[in-house]
Amino acid sequence: RSKVRPNWCAGIRRNHSIPFRALRGMGAMQNARPPNHPPPWKVVLAFAAIYLIWGSTYLAIRFAIETLPPFSMAAVRFIVAGGILYAIARPRTERPTRRNWVSAGIVGTLLLAGGNGGVVWAEQWVPSGLTALIVATVPLWMVLFDWLFGGAPRPSRLLMAGLIWGLCGVGLLMSSTEVGAQSPEGLLGGLVVLGASISWAAGSVYARKASLPRSPLLATAMEMVAGGVALSLIATFAGEG
């Protein structure tokens, strides 16, 4: 009887290449947690890392530039960190293309040379705490850039009111005795920090659609190396060599 009646299971395997183990696992996959929704403890840990590690960066910069030229310090920081991360990530991922390097160069220049470089230079006169407050305007600029250049829908009236209110707060910071009123250098430093925030927001919006490697670690390493090279050029033109 088995010779006469066709074996339909074998036919599915042969003609459609459907592994039966995968079919049995579909029910479990449907009940699994989607990859875009990590457990709450991971979210809390990620935000804690941002607050503690990222937030302490501004204070560390303030101590570093007391004995090191600002642009040179930032250049060494990102070249060393990016080189170490590249050595770790590159053997485990794909080989980056020339287009990947061009995109990483643009992102690294906007984020690290323009964003972090401006912050490092300005902290010679602007206190680190106020610098962190001014940098907190990055989400405001990202909303505007995402709307104007990223294809996002127009912000609602409530959101626009929040953006305007946030910019008024920046104006109060810039005119305070801690920034703009203490010296012309302090006012210039505050404006540079504001420009650095705009540069960081532009780089973040561009990175969403940039041709970067699939591996986030490799992309970050390339951006840091590119930003470090750009900061080295800025340091040279600034006479820090």
Q: Report low-confidence residues grouped into runs of 5 or more.
A: 4-33
Largest sheet: none
What is the number of helical segments per DSSP (H or I, 4+ residues)?
Answer: 11
Structural class: mainly alpha
Cα end-to-end separation: 88 Å
**Percent of sequence in beta strands:** under 5%
Using DSSP, what is the number of strands?
0
Helix and strand pattern: HHHHHHHHHHH
Overall outline: globular
Average pLDDT taken over every residue: 81
Quaternary form: single chain
Could you tell me the radius of gyration in angstroms? 25 Å
Helix content: over 70%
Descriptive overview:
With about 240 residues, this protein is an all-alpha fold. Helix content is about 75%, strand content about 0%. It has eleven helices and no strands. The chain starts with 7 loop residues before the first helix and ends with a helix.
Features:
241 residues; mainly alpha; 11 helices; 0% strand; globular
Topology at a glance:
Layout: H1 8-16, H2 20-24, H3 26-31, H4 40-64, H5 70-89, H6 98-122, H7 128-135, H8 138-148, H9 157-174, H10 184-209, H11 216-237
Helix pairs in contact: 4-7, 5-6, 5-11, 6-10, 6-11, 8-10
